[in-house]
Amino acid sequence: RFPHLAALPDALLDLYVAGGYGSNIGDVAGPDSARMFNPHPKTFADMYLDSWRLTRSPRFAWVLRHLVGTQGQASNEEWDQIGEDAEKTRNVALHNPSRVLGGFGLVALEEGVDSTDYRDKRCLTMRTGVGSGHAQPDSLDIQFYARGLRMLSDLGGRISGQYGKPTCMSTYVHNLVEVDEQSHCGGPRNSTGTAWVDAFKP
User: Fold this and answer.
1) Which of the four pLDDT bands, split at 50, 70 and 90, describes residue 141?
2) 3-state secondary structure the chain
3) CA separation (Å) from 176 to 24, 28, 107, 128, 155?
4) What pLDDT is attached to residue 117?
5) What angle do CA 198, 128, 39 make, to 5 degrees?
6) What is the pTM for the complete model shown?
7) For strand 122-127 and strand 16-17, is the pairing parallel, antiparallel, or unpaired?
8) N or C terminus: which one in the chain shows less Cβ crowding within 10 Å?
9) Any idea what the Cα angle at residue 163 is, between residues 160 and 166, rounded to 5°?
10) From CA 202, how far away is CA 194, in angstroms rounded?
11) Which carries the bigger pLDDT value, residue 142 or residue 98?
């Protein structure tokens, strides 16, 4: 009855770039944060199980089988079926293709998608979303990953409770172009500017 809700966990998996790095969009994310599942799918165990029951998606089955575990929620029969479905797909973080997350505001250009070694992957991301309130002027920020490392990172993020110098509200720490050395955000304070992607072809 509600296909968009059933597909929601896929949107969370799409946030992983370059073989498993978090896309580092948001206020509380350090520029040198490690390659890890953030947020970890275990946080959404019930959602993945419910969505698998509705869709029988191999991607959701893979997450349940390899990252979440049963946690006493799935029956023995369901767990057997989850194992079978999980065999139909690959590691969901290692093999994400190039994509546009229009509603979230992220474009990811991925290379080395078929490799099982995250160090063989290259990824370029661009922030295209907008925000207000708990936000920063990071629209059109570009980040780059290669050889298993963050090569070009958004230095405007912060660890919770620790603001950096210069302030994360300065546009140049978000890998953006400035004119006449003036910070700009295109909107009210604590807001992003306006950004969009008109066309995209991997």
Assistant:
1) confident
2) CCHHHHCHHHHHHCCEECCCEECCCCCECCCCCCCCCCCCHHHHHHHHHHHHHHHCCHHHHHHHHHHHCCCCCCCHHHHHHHHHHHCCCCCCCCCCCCEEECCCCEEEEEECCCCCCHHHCEEEEEECCCCECCCCCCCCCEEEEECCEEEECCCCCEECCECCCCCCCCHHHHCCCCECCECCCCCCCCECCCCCCCCCCC
3) 16, 19, 16, 12, 11
4) 94
5) 135
6) 0.79
7) unpaired
8) N
9) 150
10) 23
11) 98
The tokens 């797909």 sit on which residue? 89
User: Residue 154 above 80 pLDDT?
Assistant: no
Residue 171 pLDDT more than 80? no
User: Is-cis flag, bond preceding 39, omega within 30?
Assistant: yes
Only one residue has tokens 């770039």, namely 17
163: pLDDT strictly greater than 90: no
User: How many other β-carbons are positioned within 10 Å of the β-carbon of residue 140?
Assistant: 19
- Beta carbons of 85 and 59 less than 8 angstroms apart: no
